[in-house]
Structure formats: structure tokens, C-alpha cells
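Person: I keep going back and forth on a fold encoding question. Show me how you would write down a chain together with its backbone fold. Please set it down just below, with no commentary around it:
Helper:
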Amino acid sequence: MHNELETVFAKEGYRLTSPRRAVFDVLHGSESPLAIAVIIKACPDVDRVSIYRTLELFTRLGITEIIPFGWKQRYELTSPFKPHHHHLYCTNCGVLIDIHSQKLEQVVAAIAREQDFQPAAHKFEITGLCRHCQANIQ
């Protein structure tokens, strides 16, 4: 994975420093998008300013994307660093669940074909209540 990251950095004229590698490793090791506070805590040897600058650079280079999360935001690696997926977002407790659905991808492709449209990208976020919150409401 670091080889692909180094390729992106070299192509854009940047160096892959230790702090940038540390932030990448934290994001790569996570199964869900991360808040900046979580990334800061997971990278105790990297100063806060470097983390903010690294996330801004990663987003500008297309390495990460910002996931809106209520009035906050989280960061997540993009493809090819993580497989393409979508999210289920619980509006009660805030849990964010990754969904990998071949059926959904097939529907998106079929809709694009029907409209003679060539999509560059797509993403879905489905909001509602998770299993835990549904059980607590009943």
C-alpha cells in the first residue's frame, strides 16, 4: 500500500514523510471513517498541526475524502487505498457502517446505461436507525 502512496506523492512532487506515513497507517488500519481527534490520539509522535496539514494534503491529492458526520467531519481513504463502499449512518447514536454491495453497484451501472451517462464517481449515505437504537426505541 505504501508503494501506491509513494507513487501519488512522487507524481505530485511531495515526499512521503514519517508523519504522513503515520497518518496514512492509522486511516488504513481503520474499518470506518475517523474524526481528527481519533487520528491525533493514534499518532502521539506527530504534532497536531502536521496532522491537520497532512489530512488537507491527502484530501487535495485524492488520497482521502471528507465524510460529513452531523456537524463534524471524518476522514477516510479513497480507492485504490480502500475498496469502494457506501455508508449507513445512524441518526440517533452516530454509528457509521460501511456497506459493500455488488447489487447496489449493478443498479448504479444500469441507471447510468439507461441514461447514456458515464459516471465519474458516486457515493451513497443512507440515514436511519441502527439495530441497537431500533431495539432501544421499542
User: Anything to note?
Assistant: The first strand starts at residue 64 and ends at 69. The chain has a mean pLDDT of 91. Residues 90 and 131 are 9 Å apart (CA to CA). The helical segments are 2-12, 18-28, 36-42, 48-60, 102-114, 131-137.
